[in-house]
Design goal:
Order of helices and strands: EEHHEEHHEEHHEEHHEEHHEH
Number of helices: 11
Radius of gyration: 21 Å
Distance between the termini: 27 Å
Shape: globular
Strand order of the largest sheet: 1-11-10-9-8-7-6-5-4-3-2
Helix content: 55-70%
Length: about 325
């Protein structure tokens, strides 16, 4: 099969997303925050539904009910950790309390990553073909703890390798029916890229920061592919530093001067920029993709991810 270019587009509109945001905001106020899981589900359903690949929209099948059950479980987990912390503080065991709090939260992070990917991917589909995540919880935890330990003892230097190893593992365990994603980032490349970006941003009084973001975006995208046997779709970035500058500055201005009300338009602008600057080329016959992934409805880690302000790579 000859190489072809695939169409990936975003059709969301700021006004439509704004109406969802307003209703979500009002209902969360009226329900004292209880409506949050349903608000998140509606937002994700809109954003995924506005994303089109090869003429067909993605669908997010997660529901507010699923996320609410996960939300309650997440609150219980966080409450236990903080109850233990405050109880030990009350007992004047400050050092032990702090260690338990840090270890408790830190030990949750690999579980949050694993569970969030497993839930979000299994609840996403294209032409009724579900995505999936096949990572192993224990294997990911070992990778995470090893990377975290080496990052600490190297005073942060190993962080680039930690980040790439984690991304390589997670992304390479994402499935699209019987096809799978592959990511091939290297810690050394990532370290040099960030070092240069950091130094040049300082020397240019922040101006190079936009090109730094463009370089990181290029690296994330250009190392990503979808494979199905010998067939492959390669992702390629077309982003520019000037484009990132315009995107970020305009988004900041419209959010600041609208007192946050224009956030939906900023989100749509960002999504449009991202999708319009990604090219996909390869020889995967998407008409032959098969359903292979199981359905998974436990949203506990998805809600824990919100507590830690963690979001998915894709």
């Amino acid at each position: 099969m000859e190489n072809k270019k695939y169409q990936l587009q975003f059709f969301g509109k700021g006004g439509e997303l704004f109406s969802i945001f307003i209703v979500n905001f009002l209902l969360q106020i009226v329900t004292l925050g209880i409506y949050y899981p349903w608000a998140k589900a509606k937002t994700l359903q809109y954003l995924y539904g506005a994303t089109e690949f090869e003429g067909s929209r993605l669908q997010f099948h997660g529901t507010g009910n699923e996320m609410f059950r996960g939300f309650i479980k997440a609150i219980v987990v966080i409450a236990i950790i903080y109850f233990s912390y405050f109880f030990l503080v009350y007992q004047q065991q400050i050092l032990i309390a702090t260690l338990i709090l840090l270890l408790g939260i830190f030990s949750l992070l690999p579980l949050v990553i694993h569970g969030s990917y497993r839930y979000r991917m299994s609840r996403t589909s294209w032409r009724s073909i579900r995505f999936g995540y096949r990572g192993d919880r224990l294997e990911l935890a070992k990778l995470f703890w090893k990377g975290a330990f080496l990052t600490v003892i190297t005073l942060g230097i190993y962080g680039a390798w930690f980040s790439m190893n984690l991304r390589n593992y997670v992304m390479s365990n994402v499935r699209f029916g019987n096809a799978q994603f592959k990511y091939n980032g290297k810690g050394g490349d990532y370290f040099v890229m960030n070092l240069i970006g950091y130094l040049l941003t300082i020397l240019t009084l922040g101006i190079y920061g936009f090109w730094w973001q463009k370089t990181l975006f290029d690296y994330y995208i250009n190392n990503l592919s979808i494979e199905n046997g010998e067939q492959q779709i390669q992702f390629k970035s077309k982003a520019t530093g000037v484009g990132f500058m315009g995107l970020i500055i305009v988004n900041l201005l419209i959010i600041i001067f609208s007192l946050g009300l224009a956030t939906p338009w900023a989100i749509v602008r960002t999504m449009n920029y991202v999708f319009s600057n990604i090219e996909l080329e390869g020889n995967v016959d998407v008409e032959q993709l098969l359903q292979t992934e199981e359905n998974y409805t436990d949203a506990t880690s998805e809600d824990l991810a919100d507590f830690f302000d963690f979001d998915l790579v894709i």
